[in-house]
Amino acid sequence: MQDRLEWLSLTVEEAIDPDLPICDPHHHLWEHPGSRYLLDEFLADVAGGHRIERTVYVECQQHYRRTGPVELRPVGETEFVHELTSALQRDAAAVKVAAGIVGFADLSLGAAVREVLEAHMSASERFRGIRHASAWDPSDRIRNAHTDPPEGLLRRAEFRQGFARLRELGLTFDAWLYHHQIPDVVDLARAFPDVTIVLDHVGGPLGIGPYADRRAEVFQLWRRNMLELAACENVVVKVGGLCMTMCGFGWHKREKPPGSDELAAAMRPYFETCLEYFGARRCMFESNFPVDQASCSYTVLWNAFKRLARTCSPDERAELFHDVAVRTYRLDG
Quick check: 270 and 202 in contact, CB under 8 A? Predict the structure, then answer.
């Protein structure tokens, strides 16, 4: 971890437009062997000059309960994050880290998952929804999601029985999958038009393994899929995640991290497509930290987003950087 921080320090930038309010709608806090990213580390990143006001924590299998029914053990993550960040919610001057919490529940439990969802809601009034990652690819050179999903998870009857409980409880669903799976989200969104679905990381365009050196081909398929998805009014898109190593840009292998100009140039086709198809009222920038820290620092990443949005109107910038996230995750009360 220290080696990564030293590498990131080789590219330092001042924050662009530091007074622009930001709600970061996607980050993690974790403790893994050799990788610690908890409040101290996240707040150090946030202190880089951008005006981060609120954030949304997204599940990453942390601090599950060790005892009790297996299906209820993920509630421990909500309990952990709620306790870890409670003091910040009471401090008027502090960044409201985890103003919204997105946890995990196995929606394949069907109707029985309602008990798990209600337990999450009881664990924190800041609980807002579920992410049940479905990222799957047939290649053994692509890592599937941490939930070890089967192929076609979002189309399975038992999953949809569980998904219907989100509608009953007014919860959101974060979808994490790969670009060729976006039609599964289209089908899900059409089946549940009254559930807000958040597409994480612009739909996961792959650039490694069998997709290496096929960026133009992958982009065209992704673009067609996104056009179809945009017709579903209940879907919003998180613009980010492109600094993950699976996207294949190879920045993490460089002697020095890229600057925000280079990042923005690489992200621009994806951003402009999302903006064209979904509009600013259905797009939100996300950090996906510390995962995207593989390629750049927090300050540089938000600079890249601000460069992307330079031609947007003030109202559009407010939507992209703050308002869509606050509205989607109901962070105003």
Answer: yes
Report how far residue 277's alpha carbon sits from residue 292's, in angstroms, rounded to the nearest whole number. Answer: 25
Q: How far apart are the first and last CA of the chain?
A: 37
Domains of the chain (ranges; CATH) run: 2-328 (3.20.20.140)
Q: What is the DSSP letter of 16?
A: S
Beta strands 197-199; 283-285: pairing state: unpaired
> Two tokens at 55?
């954030």
Q: How far apart are CA 70 and CA 105, in angstroms?
A: 11
Question: What single letter denotes the amino acid at residue 148?
Answer: D
Tens of each residue's pLDDT in the chain, 333 residues: 678 899 999 999 999 999 999 999 999 999 998 899 999 999 999 999 999 999 999 999 999 999 999 999 999 999 999 999 999 999 999 999 999 999 999 999 999 999 999 999 999 999 999 999 999 999 999 999 999 999 999 999 999 999 999 999 999 999 999 999 999 999 999 999 999 999 999 999 999 999 999 999 999 999 999 999 999 999 999 999 999 999 999 999 999 999 999 999 999 999 999 999 999 999 999 999 999 999 999 999 999 999 999 999 999 999 999 999 999 999 986
Instruction: Write down the pTM of the prediction.
Output: 0.97
